[in-house]
Amino acid sequence: MDILLIAGLWLDGSAWDEVVPELTALGHRPVALDLPGQGDGDTSATLADQVATVLAAVDAAPGKVLVVGHSAASNLAWLAADARPEKVAKVALVGGYPAADGSAYADFFAIEDGVMPFPGWAAFEGPDSADLDQPTRDRLAAGAHPVPEGVARGVLRLTDERRFDMPLLLVCPEYTPAQVKEWIAQGLSPELTQATRIEYADIDSGHWPMTTRPRELARILAEAADSARS
Q1: How do beta strands 147-148 and 115-116 pair?
Q2: Which residue ranges form the domains of the chain, and what is each CATH number?
Q3: Bridge partners for 68 per DSSP
Q4: Residue 64: what pLDDT?
């Protein structure tokens, strides 16, 4: 099965470099997406541009796909399920969950000169970054791409209620499945509250398991693809 890999804020497709060969070895066809405005220097890119890139990849696949969204890009994966329910076999969300219709995509940090730069590691102290050594932090920060304002402050538009019946895997890195279930019960993600087919996978990592636990993450995603295919 084609597995579309969408990295979160500040990252390009190379974030999945260690996951891709593992997925290939497990019999799948991984496609790591480069999003407009994250790596190409296009500061005018919008959320609509990123959605269009994801949907083009979904449409180009020969069959149904597993769409994987990391962190804020969980929204992009969910938007793909909403727009292409007949083509998306399953969605996997790694370290994130979708916001509600009408919400901003990722208006989390300060905008400077039309972009949202990486805010530094102080913003992620604690479980998010506990498994990152200093060389890895330095490498990730050096490769971080400022996110265009039109992406960060873009508004989510969800229209097809069939998304709530989409098979959905929540991969839990810096938190546990039990914590996510509690957040859902509290109504912190109205989208997940209405979702009917949620599975959970725990992974002992921080917020970037594609960097620190690539083999384990690949195994989890391959199993999700296998279950969707069967």
Answers
A1: antiparallel
A2: 2-229 (3.40.50.1820)
A3: 5, 92
A4: 97
Report which residue type is found at 37: G
Three-state DSSP string of the chain: CEEEEECCCCCCHHHHCCCHHHHHHCCCEEEECCCCCCCCCCCCCCHHHHHHHHHHHHHHCCCCEEEEEEHHHHHHHHHHHHHCCCCEEEEEEECCCCCCCCCECCCCCCCECCEECCCCHHHHCCCCCCCCCHHHHHHHHHCCCCEEHHHHCCECCCCCHHHHHCCEEEEECCCCHHHHHHHHHCCCCHHHHHCCCEEEEECCCCCCHHHHCHHHHHHHHHHHHHHHHC
Per the listing, tokens 């508004």 go with 155
pLDDT at 229: 82
Mean pLDDT, each 10-residue run in order, the chain (230 residues): 97 98 98 96 96 98 97 98 98 96 96 97 97 97 97 97 97 97 93 96 98 98 92
Give residue for tokens 């917020």.
207
Output the CA torsion 16→156→169→80 (10° steps): -70
pLDDT of 102: 97
Residue tagged 């509600």 (tokens): 100
In this structure, the strands spanning 198-202 and 29-32 are: unpaired
Distance CA 204, CA 217 (A): 10
Alpha-carbon distance of 189 to 185, in angstroms, equals: 9
Q: What is each CA distance from 58 to 53, 92, 115, 142, in whole angstroms?
A: 9, 14, 27, 30
